[in-house]
Amino acid sequence: MKEELRYYTNPDTMSPMLPEDASGHLETLALQLIQKSAKLSGSLHPITCSAIAEFLRPMNSYYTNLIEGHDTHPIDIDKVLKNDYATDKAKRNLQIEAQAHIHVHKHITEIYAINKQVTVPTSSKFIKETHQLFYNFLPSEFTTVKTKEGQKKKVKPGQYRDCEVIVGKHIAPKHETLEAFIEKFESFYNPLSKSNHSKSKRIISIAASHHRLAWIHPFLDGNGRVVRLCSDAFFMYESLDAFGLWSISRGLARSNDAYKGHLANADQQRYNDYDGRGTLSNKFLFAFCDYFLNTAIDQIDFMTNALSTETMLKRIEAFSDLMASRGKIKPTAKHILTSLFLKGKISKAEAMRITNTSDKTLKLIIESLIKLELASAKKEGIAMVYYVKYPLIASPVVFPGLYPMDKDIDILNID
């Protein structure tokens, strides 16, 4: 007779919700994250910061989908954002999946830009709405999954699963009890709760809640992407995302085996009297939080180094020289590009001064920059103003290492 599987039914079995840490190691990491994020936040002109954050959004989508085994080329992601869909159905579906993630991520960013108190990132409402918005954009092929019994089931956007799931060796909570588990999740990790007045505790909670939401596995499918979007939102809520200048998904994808290994380890139950006081392993939840926070710090460090003024000016000049050698822009355009990086925007009068050209020549320079999506033009009052932009083609030279090397080579060869 087949042994009956034992499902979690009591929300208290999700303990510990935060790892015990007598050493204070995780709090030290949390404080480092605060300091490093603040440094990155103030490193650029706000307009330049916004332009780079917009440029990085497709990168975030690329990496979160890569974790799920969907390697959608950055060039194809860039194309779909311009409504250029592949004729191949499989490739087109991956484009739409990436587009969906970008749309949801941008939506979340806009929510928190208006009022952070409106939507708590750990609430059941937010979790469901994020899943619904993501799945509303997906092609039908991505909305049907097979259950452990081999049956095909349709994913219901924004609705918790109505069947049981096993993820690797982890048997997720019984579906009838999901609301109770999410209620405990929401209550414990709510950043507005009086018990969460400590900033460092809330930062550790970003890491711990990432695992615990994955452990609950509330949806039939799409849990990984939703969990990472919720973590993105949590970082935004705590003003730790540096206005969108770094991505946790990039770090998790670059250490994908370690990420999934730490997630799986933290699923395990407490194995002896020295492993905490909860149902689940304190040791492995601590290890996951340590990994997650170190990954976040590593990504902030990467972007801080990449965006230093001296480094960026050298790379912008190198990129300008490359584009000029290809006949795409005039050599003097580098002066406009460097000024745009430093100031975010410049007037037409200033552009004429720094290039020392005529109105006619400046027009040709600006037209070439707009064509390459390296700038945009806007009339403000009676003056024409040029704004900074960063297209995918700039990535390999201006932001080397952002994508894997083979992708950078392909992007560099875009005609």
The biggest sheet amounts to: 3 strands, antiparallel
So, the CATH homologous superfamily of the largest domain? Fido-like domain
Strand order of the largest sheet: 5-7-6
**Strand/helix succession:** HHHHHEEEEHHHHHHHHEHHEEHH
- Number of discrete domains: 2
Task: Briefly note the structural class of the backbone.
Answer: mainly alpha
The number of helical runs is 17
Named at the architecture level, the CATH assignment of the largest domain is Orthogonal Bundle
Uncertain runs with pLDDT below 50, 5 residues or more?
A: none
Shape: globular
The helical percent reads 55-70%
Strand coverage percent = 5-15%
Distance between the termini: 64 Å
Number of strands: 7
Q: What would you report as the Rg, rounded to the nearest angstrom?
A: 23 Å
> Please, what is the average pLDDT?
95
What is the fold-level CATH name, i.e. the topology of the largest domain?
Answer: Fic-like fold
Sum this structure up briefly:
This protein has a three-stranded antiparallel beta sheet, with helices on both faces.
What does this structure look like?
- The chain is mainly α and 415 residues long.
- It has 2 domains: 35-306, Fido-like domain (Fic-like fold), CATH 1.10.3290; 309-412, Arc Repressor Mutant, subunit A.
- 56% of the residues lie in helices and 6% in strands.
- It has 17 helices and 7 strands.
- A 3-stranded antiparallel β-sheet has the order 5-7-6, with helices on both faces. A two-stranded antiparallel sheet has the order 1-2.
- Strand 3 and strand 4 form a beta hairpin.
- The longest helix has 26 residues, at 89-114.
- It starts with 24 loop residues before the first helix and ends with a helix.
